[in-house]
Amino acid sequence: MAPPYSLVYNILEKYIFNLHLKENNYKYIIVPNILNFKSFINSGQIPKFIKKLFIIRAGNKIKYLIPTSEVSLINFMIKKKIKSNYIPIKLFSKTECYRNEQLNYGAMNKNIIKQKQFNKLELMQFVDNKNSYRYLKELVKIVEKIIKNFKINYRIIELSKNNLSYISSKTFDLEVWIPSLNNFCEVSSCSNTENYQSIRTSIKYIKLNKNIEYFSIINGSGLAIGRFFLSLIEKYELKYIFKNILKKYKIF
């Protein structure tokens, strides 16, 4: 990506980053992009991503590039036991993601829509079980607000049970309109995995009555920058983006 598009892309990413940090009160965590196989087992991403992982071999050691920093954030919290007065714990990361996608012909497989490497901000909350679905709705609203700020056409889809990942109890996909595709494209998927991941990784919280429970874990893309950027530049001219959008939100 070359100027001036690369500049707009970078400014957009910084705006969303600062939004999560300052307005949404998430704590920024720098996480590794290379993990061992056990890390993927811990987060429940195997077998989902087993055919899409990029493998790194160094001598007898084998490591893997992350397909999403959800894996890294889960393992960052592994075996932690936290007092309930610190709930909710809100973390986010900004990483490159790597997926060995098998691309076919067609518009939905071109360029920025499906990539083997892409940028993504990942949001994660560790919450009490009683209020987990309320926190899921709040997460969806956070991503929705970003899209609304730029007046991009979008829709929210609640996945049916048949389409849910086996680790998720409820998932909402947020999709934006891409004019050149004449179609909507997913920019965020927000899920409640309840305590499935926390049991696998022994992430617990101590209640006021001293009882110990496993966290419910909420995660979502906040959001896939490339796809959102594409919807933005297809709707607006670059001059309009600079003068009317970036300045309005004091991004530039």
From TrEMBL:
Location(s) in or outside the cell: Cytoplasm
To which pathway does this protein belong?
A: Aminoacyl-tRNA biosynthesis; selenocysteinyl-tRNA(Sec) biosynthesis; L-seryl-tRNA(Sec) from L-serine and tRNA(Sec): step 1/1
Which Gene3D superfamilies does this entry report, sorted A to Z?
Bira Bifunctional Protein, Domain 2
State any single GO MF term: serine-tRNA ligase activity
Give me the Gene Ontology terms describing cellular component.
cytoplasm
* Chief place of localization: cytoplasm
The text of the family note is: Belongs to the class-II aminoacyl-tRNA synthetase family. Type-1 seryl-tRNA synthetase subfamily.
What is the official name of this protein in its record? Seryl-tRNA(Ser/Sec) synthetase
Organism encoding this protein: Candidatus Nasuia deltocephalincola
